[in-house]
Amino acid sequence: MPKIHSTTVIAVLHNGKVAIGADGQATLGNTVAKSNVRKIRKLKDGKAVVGFAGSTADAFALMDKFEEKLSAYGGIVERAAIELAKEWRTDRYLRRLEAMMIVVAKNEIFIISGSGDVIKPDNDVAAIGSGAMYAQAAALALKKHAPHLSAKQMVEEALHIAADICIYTNHNLLIEEIE
Q: Measured between alpha carbons, how far is 171 from 177 in angstroms, rounded to an integer?
């Protein structure tokens, strides 16, 4: 059975604002299965936003778990991310889930993986998925050479550049910004 491939998710923190965006493509084998998948979700009344790459069902299970952790730890994103990563790594059911997440909140970006990693990027740019390195390279160049752009504009342009290069990324974008 062909595996569903997708995605590019990127987050940028710039000038006190954080934006996260994703493309909309899901690919099954060598065919586009869907072109407008929603890969980012608002949590806690929009105070946090999660973007995911990997198996959709697994990502939704992890988003639910993250939302539980967020509620349990008073909305503290970093603590919720660490607790999710610990449980994801040690729980027999969760450790079989195949997905990665980027979580953003005001002035915070974290990448969370099933291997127990919670990464806060040094350069305020985080990317996951098939087109991650293309989008990340573009965003880093934009931060350095076009600092007049907003975080949202950087995310949008980085995703368009990734879509021009990566066959698993399209130009149907969903972008959210947190101030």
A: 18
Q: Which residues, other chains included, contact 114 with Cβ-Cβ below 8 Å and sequence gap of 6+? A: 88, 89, 94, 95, 97, 98, 99, 100
Provide CB contacts within 8 A for 55, sequence distance 6+: 4, 97, 98, 99
Fill in the DSSP letter of residue 116: S
Q: Please, what sign has the CA dihedral across residues 138, 16, 83, 9?
A: negative
**∠ CA 88-89-91, rounded to 5°:** 65
| Tens digits of residue pLDDT in 70-109 | 999 999 999 999 999 888 878 777 767 778 899 999 999 9
Cβ atoms of residues 4 and 55 within 8 Å: yes
Helices (H), 46-99: 56-72, 77-90
The pTM is what?
0.93
123-166 pLDDT, tens digit per residue, is 999 999 999 999 999 999 999 999 999 999 999 999 999 999 99
- DSSP code string of 162-178: HHHH-TT--S--EEEEE
Looking at the annotation, which residues are catalytic? 7
The CA distance from 20 to 41, in Å, is: 10
